[in-house]
Amino acid sequence: MGRLTAWVDRRFPFSALVRTSMTEYYAPKNFNFWYFFGSLALFVFAAQIISGILLLAHYQPSAKAAFNSVQTIMYDVKWGWLVRYIHTTGASLFFIVIYLHMLRGYLYGSFKRPRELLWLVGVALYVCLMGEAYFGYVLPFGNMSYWGGEVITSIIAAIPYLGDWLASVLRGSFGVGTPTLTRFVAFHAVLLPALLAVLILTHLLALHEVGSNNPDGVEIREHLDARGRPVDGIPFHPYYTVKDMFGVGVFLVVFCAIVFYAPTFHGLFIETYNFSPANPLKTPPDVTPAWYLAPYYAMLRAVPNKAVGIGILFAAIIAPFLLPWLDYSPVKSSRYRPVYRWMVIAFALTLLALGWIGMQPATPALLLPARIFLALYFLFFLSLPLVSRLEPTRPVPQRISAS
Amino acid sequence: MIARLSVLFLALAVVAAHAAAQTTPLLSPPAAFDRATIRRGAQWFAQYCLSCHSVKWIRYDRLTRDLGFSKDAVRQELMFPGGAHFAQGMVPTLSARDAAAWFGVAPPDLTLEARLRGGAWIYTYLRSFYFDPTRPSGWNNHLFPDAAMPNVLAPISGIRDAKGRLIQRGRLTPRQVNQVIGAITVWLEYTSDPSKLERERLGPYVIGFALLLSVVAYLMKRAYWREVS
Ligand code: HEM
Question: A201: how many CB neighbours lie within 10 A of its CB?
Answer without folding.
Answer: 11
